[in-house]
Amino acid sequence: MDRARAGAAILGERAVSKVDPTLKELKRDAAEQVDAAGAPRLVGVLVQFTGAVADLHAIGLVTSTVKAHPNGRFSLAAGTLPLDRIDDLAAIAHVVRIEASRTFATELASSVPEIGATALHSAATAYTGAGVVIGIVDTGIDYRHQVFRKVDGTSRVLAIWDQNLTASGAEGPPAGYPLGVEYLKAAIDTALASATPTTAVRSYDDRQGHGTHVAGIAAGDGSQAGNCHGADHYIGVAPDADLIVVNVDSGDDEALGNSMNLVNAVRYIFEHPAAAGRPVVINMSLGDNLGPHDGDSLVELFLDLFLIEQDGRAIVKSAGNEGNDNRHAAGAVPAAGQVDVDFEVLADDDARRFIDLWYPSGHSLDVEVIAPGAGPPTSPRIAPDDPDQVWVVNPGAAAGSQMRVVIDSNANVPSNSSGQIRLTLRPPAAGD
Questions:
Q1: How far apart, in whole angstroms, are the C-alpha atoms of residue 76 and residue 58?
Q2: 206-215, 239-248, 360-369: which has the minimum mean pLDDT?
Q3: 19 - beta bridge partners?
Q4: Are strands 133-138 and 242-247 parallel, antiparallel or unpaired?
Q5: What is the DSSP letter of 311?
Q6: How far apart are CA 249 and CA 265, in angstroms?
Q7: Number of H helices, E strands in the chain
Q8: Helix orientation angle between 298-308 and 259-270, rounded to the nearest 10 degrees
Q9: pTM for this one?
Q10: Cα-to-chain-centroid distance, residue 30
């Protein structure tokens, strides 16, 4: 249980941490500082800064995408850095904030008839996506599917960048990007003409089919029968559009994931030579629940910069499928009062979980965490900008069976001057 108490006083000037709670929590433990081979652990980060990017490079940040605001207000960088150099990055005077790369989950809740797209297909001047490039950032695509081919059997997929593949033989990532394998249309067409296409083009959405599903809604031409229906039944929104697909790297850690790679994916699609001079729309049916969700996270600012630098560009983001999942709560804390927020941790849950609480600037909330059971222990009461603390829920248990809660509370977060309370629930190392 999370117990928050509000004070009536307006906050005065406080030191503001540039490092987001996820990174602070990770760099706390020595075990997190190295990878399985004992080498310094690299983490993906997004950085907002106002000076020279060379200063970031000098302390070890390897950037993959850098964007400057057209009015010179700030710049953004996506890249990797050893976890033990985060404090050095934060010490650079013109670094405004550092955001951990975040893990996204797939989302999908839409259909062509519900948005009225079928009417456009049959209008006097039909709009079917001809000449348009649709970018899909998702789990990849089954390029072998008939609905993504032209009448002559060649592909409407102009390029695939699979960030999850390790290059083999002559394969390699796109020029200027650090991971994965790129396949261009010529290679895809050659694969389709062979008896074993996945030998030549190994990326084919084999994880769950979500990306193929999304691409079908966006640009499938309905030419293949299926699901108890004949051909020309499941027709997408833009059945004549071409496609550029990125199978975004899902990351190997529940705390650090793919928002850095998402930024690189958007840049790859918008800057791809096959998209030059053409309208480009990117679909992202994925998301997460961290952050203020007000347009001020570094991922969202990156997307803004991509869109304002060139006409004919659009990004479509899914609303999500979690309206009935009880993942969100809202309320008002009375002055000098408190509000209790209940949450449940399943007995067999061995993943790291996060609870993000946001409140308007000009206010101050303290937080306590209470464990379940008769006579439960209570965490220390943490006020805004107190040092973040690790609270052991069951200190009497063996070290490998202890449940820990990291409590981080910040006033005037650099992104939007709001207050943020982050609880990180860390399961026992033994999984008990």
A1: 16
A2: 206-215
A3: 98
A4: parallel
A5: S
A6: 10
A7: 9, 19
A8: 10
A9: 0.78
A10: 26
